Amino acid sequence: MGETGGRVIVSNRNHCLVADSSGTLHRCHPRSRRSPRPVCGDRVDWCADATAGWIDAIQPRRNLIERGDFRGRPRGLAANIDRIVVVIAPQPAPDALLIDRYIVLSEALDIPLLVWGHKQDLAPVTPTAAMRALETRCERQGIPLLMGSIMTDNGLARLRTATRHETLILVGQSGVGKSSITQALVPTASRRIGEISATSGQGRHTTSATTWFERPDGGALIDSPGVRTLRLDHLTTDAVDAAYPDIADATRHCRFNDCRHGHEPDCAVQQGLASGAIDADQWRRWQRLREETSG
Fold it and tell me: Half-sphere exposure of residue 289, counting CA atoms within 13 Å on the CB side?
């Protein structure tokens, strides 16, 4: 087989699965250990000989989502994304810090973000305080917040319409139903997972791998593993500030440029906290994320 172009559907430690123009999957390996590692969503040039498929080049990326590992080194997760969709649900209860991490990542990469409130058939009639705070934040920052449930098919049409022809990546905690959303938006997902398992040679495919699915209404969907946290060590404090515009704006009105926003006189952040203009919980999350990132 001659050299051709393809899309990385799944990337594992020592190989990846590439879909050719007809959608057929091929197991491919980087040419050498020093070659850049392809990630899910990459467009690649590849070829095959009598023994295996080989990745010759990764085509230029529009963007790259990375996660810091336990040593703070960035690790590629997915590329060429049009929108990050943070999935939340009544149970497990939304993790405000994790949502903030994805907002920071979205701002840093200039990738639009949408929050999808899933399993609303299980939600309490009266929204929780945490949910009300999230609604307020999304409204202030212009982040779309859509609600629905695949159990009742409520809201799915709005999600499809809002993201038509886009490449989405679904992110969020384990147990919020990302895989079931994938199945609802991509009815052929189960069959594709079977093809992935057969081609990879690693047995039953699980949601531990970030996986690309073509959407029947245009665009694509990437299902990523549920995460307990999202390290942002590889980003800067400026990226954190961009995700907290109310707090960042207040810091510019402090009396001292090096104000630590504690007990310094004429601290605009402390004044905002005292008046309620700045949410105290959000301020604590801002402090924590700034401590994790570089200057």
Answer: 30
- Angle, CA of 137, 292 and 130, to the nearest 5°: 25
CB 96 within 8 A of CB 285: yes
How many whole angstroms separate alpha carbon 139 and alpha carbon 116? 14
Domain ranges of the chain: 4-58, 64-223, 237-292
The average pLDDT across 214-241 equals 86
pLDDT of residue 34: 82
As a whole number of angstroms, the distance between CA 32 and CA 54 comes to 10
Spatial distance between the Cα atoms of 83 and 86, rounded to a whole number of angstroms: 10
3-state SS class at 222? strand
Fold (CATH) for 4-58: OB fold (Dihydrolipoamide Acetyltransferase, E2P) (2.40.50)
Q: What contacts 247, CB < 8 A, 6 or more positions away? A: 241, 269, 272, 278, 282, 283, 286
- pLDDT reported for residue 206: 47
- Domain 64-223, CATH 3.40.50.300 — does that match? yes
Residues forming a β-bridge with 86? 115, 171
Instruction: Write down the pLDDT at residue 228.
Output: 61
| pTM summary value | 0.91
CATH of domain 237-292: 1.10.40.50
